[in-house]
Amino acid sequence: MSKLALRTYTLLQTVTSVGLSAMAWAVTGVRPIWSGSQPSDRQRIYFANHTSHGDFILLSACLSETERAKTHAIAAAEYWGKSRLRRFIAEDMLSSVLISRTWTSEAEHPISIMLSVLEQGHSLIIFPEGTRNTSDELLPFRSGLYNLSMARPDVELIPCWIENMSRVLPKGQFLPVPLLCRVVFGAPVAVAPGEERRAFLQRAREALLALDPRPDRDD
């Protein structure tokens, strides 16, 4: 890629990021709530509940411009890589990192791809349920969060509860509905010495659920 093309590409991503952030604030009036952690430019892995394609846009809008520029959402290649247009939107406009659930080589291994992003000093947004969840119950976490924490214990894991986004941009819809939203950022979570994978994933899941502001949640 030439220097001019690289500058143009970077400018496109910056303009898109600022525009989407402004739209998220305008449509949802999003209110970030820092409960147990504070805004920071340090490298992090934000893990959140997942009910809408707009989740990572809303979460990103709560970060500073500097942090947002180096934070990438992990997205499913099976959906976002189906067409050139979807891939362009995901990778070039939204700066997402696509991973495949049906990888066949070590180079395609989701953990390897995510670790390569972290090695560049960037941050990640991941959804440990592994898929969009249209139910009221938080799904069990997949093992990726544990594997990343074991490989990079120096990177903070921050739980983030995204409230109301499923009503703003329901599954199958493309036009957002103006509704107030909040993103609650919790205290960092880390694997304890000798902690078993399932125990950690359950503890991380409970840390995320504890941020849910709904008083009538079932979990």
Verbal overview:
- Helix content is 40%, strand content 16%.
- By secondary structure, it is of the alpha/beta class.
- Strands 1-7-6-2-5-3-4 form a seven-stranded mixed β-sheet, with helices on both faces.
- Helix 1 (3-28) crosses helix 2 (55-61) and helix 6 crosses helix 7.
- The mean pLDDT is 86.
Quick structural overview:
This protein has 219 residues and is of the alpha/beta class. The chain has nine helices and seven strands, in the order H-E-E-H-H-E-H-H-E-H-E-H-E-H-E-H.
Short key terms for the protein model shown above:
alpha/beta, 7-stranded mixed beta sheet, about 40% helix
Say how many strands there are. 7
Largest β sheet strand count, sense and barrel closure: 7 strands, mixed
- Described by its quaternary structure, the protein is single chain
Strand order of the largest sheet: 1-7-6-2-5-3-4
The arrangement of helices and strands along the chain is HEEHHEHHEHEHEHEH
Helix/strand/pairing category: alpha/beta
Estimated helix fraction: 25-40%
Name given to the CATH architecture: 3-Layer(aba) Sandwich
Average residue-wise pLDDT: 86
Task: Estimate the global geometry from the Cα principal axes.
Answer: globular
Number of domains: 1
CATH superfamily: Glycerol-3-phosphate (1)-acyltransferase
Number of helices: 9
